[in-house]
């Protein structure tokens, strides 16, 4: 007489092998979620597309008496004027001119902020009336009194004018003299940037540690987080906390689906890491153009109102910056404790150290990798939300602009080590922001490339990495 297999064993066997009905159910759920996401984005952004087609008209706006609020029929150009001690400057007149003979004006309030409502998209000229500056205060460069700003409907565009207590104190490069106040202000900005980069870099490092893959599409996960938060908070009017939570969950789900639909099937076919890296490059380009198609090339704001500033021990940052730094610190500490104290966290570190040995020890490597992709995408999405709030805007290539900083952070800390990614991110963030003391504008991002080259020349394994023999 043959043995009888218990019904439970049959069900477990069918679950492990993946029954056709289960696969069809998962596929149907994925298609349904994709349909809902596409419908929500298209519906939420349709007013923006309609407004963007409106033609400029001749108009003149009176002097602003209150903060400008964006809508589908208008945009805002706003900014802040700080004195030589990085304190808000009140009573400075700002004039804005633009397409269709548009003219508008505003006067800075007690917080140093000004804003002008604009009726159409286009290039606008923002000019500071130097005669209205406080006595003993001057623009750091007199030729910088007039600037060109690209304005868009249903979006904010901004610029910051910095004052100096010395007339003509700067050179034509636009840099100012280094003072203790400027140093500590930039140092605080570096800590802020480092914390936000660390959220994305830790996931990038874990992906490399568990799979050996350098994901060039990781920056687009950051962009996805910022743009989804814009849809939920700005277009649909959700509470910013609810919008942030839903955004992180959706980004994490995108990481899960990526591994289920792309990376695991490719791993089973034993595709080389070089080929997988090329796939990530293609995925990055496809995602960028998808973002540009749905959201346009303009920078969009997650929150419409002008940010409030808080000065603490001589350092002035927005309220969003302080909140973002606090959230990032809590999440990073929680992630570190999870990796160090929990059973699954230890399994993740084991796979990162030696996948073959971990598999031989009974660890489900595919399950750990699936979790890493999910965690990495969720953390990158959170980074995108925080960056969108701190930087006062997000666009289709926000993640791409930060990708070099993330790779430099991961390489500096040590490829595949989560703690190394955190330390590397803090160093990169601080160095990049301090570079602004001597280099103007976005030249500071080139510092990350210099650091990356020096690391590869003198310590390619990074701070916490282990030197390995090749060949």
Would you spell out the secondary-structure blueprint of this structure?
Blueprint (H helix, E strand, L loop, with lengths): L6 H11 L2 H33 L22 E8 L10 E6 L3 E6 L5 E6 L3 E7 L9 E2 L6 E6 L4 E9 L15 H32 L6 H18 L4 H29 L4 H23 L13 E4 L2 E4 H23 L1 H11 L1 H6 L4 H26 L7 H16 L4 H18 L10 H13 L13
Parallel strand pairs: 1-8
Antiparallel strand pairs: 1-4, 2-3, 2-5, 5-7, 6-8, 9-10
Helix pairs in contact: 3-7, 3-8, 3-10, 3-11, 3-12, 4-5, 4-6, 4-10, 4-11, 5-10, 7-8, 7-10, 8-10, 11-12, 11-13, 12-13
Characterize the biggest β-sheet.
4 strands, mixed
Quantity of strands, as a count: 10
Q: List the helices and strands in order.
A: HHEEEEEEEEHHHHEEHHHHHHH
Task: Look at the helices and sheets and give the structural class.
Answer: alpha+beta
Total helices: the number is 13
Rg result: 25 Å
- The stretches of 5 or more residues where confidence is low (pLDDT under 50) are 1-20, 38-58, 169-176
Mean pLDDT, rounded to whole units? 81
Characterization of this structure:
This protein has 471 residues and is of the alpha+beta class. 55% of the residues lie in helices and 12% in strands. It contains 13 helices and 10 strands. The protein has helices spanning 7-17, 20-52, 180-211, 218-235, 240-268, 273-295, 319-341, 343-353, 355-360, 365-390, 398-413, 418-435, 446-458, and strands at 75-82, 93-98, 102-107, 113-118, 122-128, 138-139, 146-151, 156-164, 309-312, 315-318. It has a 4-stranded mixed β-sheet, with no helix packed on it. Strands 3-2-5-7 form a 4-stranded antiparallel β-sheet, with no helix packed on it. Strands 9-10 form a two-stranded antiparallel ribbon. A hairpin with a 2-residue loop joins strand 9 and strand 10. Helix 3 packs parallel to helix 7 (319-341). The protein is globular.
